[in-house]
Amino acid sequence: MGKTDTYRDPNVITVNDVQVLSISKEWKLVEARDRSEQFIILVIEGRASFRLDQTGGMLNQGDFMVISPEDMQEGLALLPITENIYVCYVALFAAHARKERDGWLINEVMLPIQGKHHIETISLIHHHIEQLHLAWRKDHFDQPTMQILFLKLWQAIMAGVTLQEKKTDRQQLLQGIAEHMEQHCEETFQIEEMARYSGMTPTLFYQQFKEYTSLTPLQFINRKRMEKACQLLVAEDVMIPEVANEVGYRDVYYFSRMFKKIVGVPPYRFKKSLQKKIAVLHPAIIGDLLALGVSIQQLIPVWEKHRQKRPYSQMEAATLEFDLYRLHQMEPDLIVGTDQVAPWFEQLEAIAPTLLIPFKTTTWRDHLQQVAAMLGIAEVATSWLYYYDQKAVAARERIRKKIGNETVMAVRAWDGGARIFGARRRKISDILYGDLQVRPPVGTDHFAFLDIVSLDELHDFQADHILLFDERKIRTDVRKHRLKGNVHRAGVYPWLHYSALGHEQAISEALTHLAESQECTKKESGSSIFLRPQVCDNN
């Protein structure tokens, strides 16, 4: 018999143990009895947190784990979150055998999938488990029968995994189609052609595309065209007919009607209103201005150095202190700040028309609408919020399908402690518990934030998912705390950036973490109709 580390489907199985357990308290599986023994743990009912060596997470109904001997150095522990959980446990040896000229060649193999997976066909899987368990209890020495029954179970598991992979493949395909449409928005697209490329019927493609983007294919392409038109109108000295032609419209009057319908104002008014130099006295307001379509080149950031935060700390003028004399020399057309500089309002007003927003007593939606009104484009804010709400509803449904009623908690970590954001913290609750309507863990609904001295204290809240905003320098230390639940690592921006742009990009990141994948990506978040910097920090 040979040894190999190849991951492939086995055709020879020796079953060492089969258990179907009802667990109401912590349950542990010790290290492998043999260096080639493998394990399958499948949750039939209920929900539990798990700890496996240096990793941890959540297991829900339909989740299963394939565990190799190398992953069992410290064993596996399950802790029920529901009153009890119903679990199947199988220990086995696996090999692949083939006939050679001089005899049989048998190589021990690792099962072709490892780690945590999910399957929807739990009733079929349950049936095969019952058959395997019944045979084990009757005569576990009858290995030929055990092998046949296990291979039936394994085929059902692999079929369920393949079904889930197809769903993921479809999502990736839709993402690729949407990205292609965005990059070539000036071209003409036919739904039938895109559906044929995706392998779906036109009706199914239409439904799936709208679920993924919150827009129909036609709405999506028109909106991307207007996004590009907005950039051209404010960033370049071009005439409106040129812009219309550049984004795929041969009829300039039709372009103007579509622009007003989607953006909120006619293109000539948009261009005139946004070609102004604007001095910004608070970082968050830049997110509102960019959402409205103001070019970043038109902005003059003026704030103290200690307020410099990503993504605006690298802007050319971001080193300026709040200096009225120097501000006067820059000759801005408008000044926008918060009520923190209210004592200097008259001096600011003497330099240029000034808007000071009551930042802490009003919402980010109010901020956006006030800034838009000052620019004379209040309709643009109304349109932007309409599409934002559409995106939030679509994201809410996708997240609900993925995690159901599981709880989500936001935490910012640093060396020596962390801050838990409760349901009363507006920067987080507006997004997570308002727009996305996910459930906060029990005990976090009555405070804005709670500072803790160790990440170990997070265990007390038993959150199913933890959005962990941690700095790069402490990332290697997070694992040692063995946090329960699914930990999604993210950057502070955009989650704690209280602006329209910050909220819109946080919606996109929430989809990445809670609806699409358990891993962070480098992909830039957000799908705003307007120009924005490449600032997503998923690390």
TrEMBL record:
Keywords: DNA-binding, Transcription, Transcription regulation. Residues 277-518 form the Fe/B12 periplasmic-binding domain. Residues 171-273 form the HTH araC/xylS-type domain. The keyword Thylakoid does not apply. It comes from the Bacteria. SMART domains: HTH_ARAC (SM00342). InterPro entries: ABC_transptr_periplasmic_BD, Homeodomain-like_sf, HTH_AraC, HTH_AraC-typ_CS. PANTHER family: ARAC-FAMILY TRANSCRIPTIONAL REGULATOR, MMSAB OPERON REGULATORY PROTEIN. This is Transcriptional regulator. It comes from Brevibacillus porteri. The lineage of its organism: Bacteria, Bacillati, Bacillota, Bacilli, Bacillales.
